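Below is a filled-in request sheet from our internal design queue. Each sheet records the structural input a requester submitted and the sequence that came back. We keep these sheets so that new team members can see what a complete request looks like end to end.

REQUESTER: design group, bay 2
PRIORITY: normal
MODE: inverse folding
CHAIN LENGTH: 280
BACKBONE (tokenized):
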């Protein structure tokens, strides 16, 4: 596979905002917006439960906006709906890669798996806030939209509570540790694990997934500012689907898996206006 193929570029561009999450430094003045670019590398399974993986590497865009009430930065979209004392209602995003069924032995003969984009509200609650430590509960609910060219199709929903602990090792290095659990409806699970009757074979029976438990995950990530213009972001994730509502699907070949990503980003431009310019 050509590492800089169009598919790699689209995958990295789609997933980079979802993976590049780190706390903004607590300084009074930061540029209102920054523009940059970088390169991302990801090793991901075709889907959770697949025994085949893909490696993607491609250039990615990088943009930060820090408005007075709305921000799009390394922590995602903030203050979009509500921001109070220790509680925020923002947006949560996730995504899944496309799968060419001819390249996946278990899915061969089935329709291709379209790329998926997930979006929905996230209620973020600060449980502990100290100078170098932060513990949050993130209650996320997202709708899954599959992307077929310029058309999108609703597939289902997922509820994804997260417990996240952030640790500032220094002014330049932050670590994040999180645990999460997944619950989805039948449509969401069926998008990845269902087998329509016309695609059934003697070794791949027809299958319909049910609503309910979808597994657990743990993740560790690090964000390191190498200097004023360069930053490195990387994460390692583990996912387990034992006992899930779909672990008996003929498309599930692994009950757990580990995957990683790494991004190297260069900031090219910062606005002269800073967050310190906002009136009180």
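RETURNED SEQUENCE:
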């Amino acid at each position: 596979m050509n590492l800089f193929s169009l598919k790699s570029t689209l995958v990295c561009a789609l997933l980079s905002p979802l993976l590049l999450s780190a706390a903004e430094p607590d300084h009074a003045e930061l540029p209102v917006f920054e523009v940059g670019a970088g390169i991302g590398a990801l090793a991901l399974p075709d889907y959770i439960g697949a025994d085949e993986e893909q490696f993607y590497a491609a250039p990615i865009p990088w943009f930060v906006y820090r408005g007075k009430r709305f921000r799009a930065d390394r922590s995602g979209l903030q203050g979009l709906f509500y921001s109070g004392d220790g509680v925020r209602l923002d947006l949560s995003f996730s995504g899944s890669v496309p799968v060419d069924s001819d390249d996946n032995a278990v899915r061969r003969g089935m329709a291709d798996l379209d790329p998926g984009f997930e979006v929905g509200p996230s209620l973020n609650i600060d449980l502990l806030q100290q100078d170098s430590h932060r513990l949050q509960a993130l209650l996320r609910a997202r709708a899954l939209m599959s992307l077929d060219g310029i058309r999108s199709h609703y597939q289902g929903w997922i509820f994804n509570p997260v417990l996240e602990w952030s640790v500032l090792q220094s002014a330049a290095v932050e670590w994040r540790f999180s645990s999460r659990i997944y619950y989805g409806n039948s449509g969401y699970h069926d998008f990845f694990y269902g087998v329509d009757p016309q695609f059934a074979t003697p070794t791949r029976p027809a299958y319909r997934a049910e609503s309910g438990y979808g597994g657990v995950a743990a993740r560790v990530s690090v964000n390191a500012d190498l200097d004023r213009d360069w930053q490195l972001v990387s994460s390692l994730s583990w996912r387990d689907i034992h006992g899930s509502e779909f672990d008996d699907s003929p498309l599930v070949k692994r009950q757990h898996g580990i995957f990683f990503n790494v991004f190297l980003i260069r900031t090219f431009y910062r606005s002269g206006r800073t967050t310190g310019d906002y009136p009180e």
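SHEET NOTES:
- The longest strand covers residues 151-168.
- The first helix runs from residue 6 to 19.
FILED BY: M.R.
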